[in-house]
Amino acid sequence: MKNLISANQKGFTLVELLITIAIVGILAAIIVPRFLQGEAARASEALSQLAAIRLGEEDYRTNNGIYCGTDDACWTDWSTITMDNPGSSPERFFDYDVTTNDVDSFCIVATRGDFNPSGNAFAGTTICMDNFGSYFGDHPKGPGFGHSPGSGTGCEGVC
Predict the structure, then answer these.
(1) Residue 80 lies in a domain
(2) Are 80 and 94 spatial neighbours (Cβ–Cβ below 8 Å)?
(3) pLDDT reading at 23 higher than 80
């Protein structure tokens, strides 16, 4: 009877393949949560900046009787609402915009930029805050967001 396995036959055994797959799975289980934790920290940057901008808008309204958005004639720069431009730092992760709907309401939108040359899966996602301090948006790990990135269910129609 012929020997079914020759001495010079090359290839991987099933055990070697299973061990390799297990190692890759373990590494993925370690790396993916760390990536999401980092994104949650970046989202907290936006949440704190949105709260600061909201306070600046409320202060402006107290002094002038109206809200002033970045697209309004009363807007000169971020010093209008007594703060530095939150998007001017090179370490930033979001761009910010304030829109006034009328004299009694405003909406602040933080849009996740793609500041990484290799790309960013979360670029374009948004977090919004209205004049009541309610958060909306589609950024992961934010309070009550629950939408996937790029789903188009962010701030549209909210503010």
Answers:
(1) yes
(2) no
(3) yes
CB pairs under 8 A, 24+ apart, for 28-36? 36/140, 36/141
Q: Tokens standing for 56?
A: 């600046």
Q: What gap in Å lies between CA 156 and CA 142, rounded to an integer? A: 17
Q: What is the amino acid identity at position 157?
A: G
What are the tens digits of pLDDT across the range 56-95? Answer: 888 888 888 888 887 777 887 888 888 887 777 767 788 8
What's the CA gap between 17 and 40, in Å, rounded? 35
CATH of the domain at 120: 3.30.700
Residue 156 lies inside a defined structural domain of this protein: no
Domain that holds residue 105: 14-137
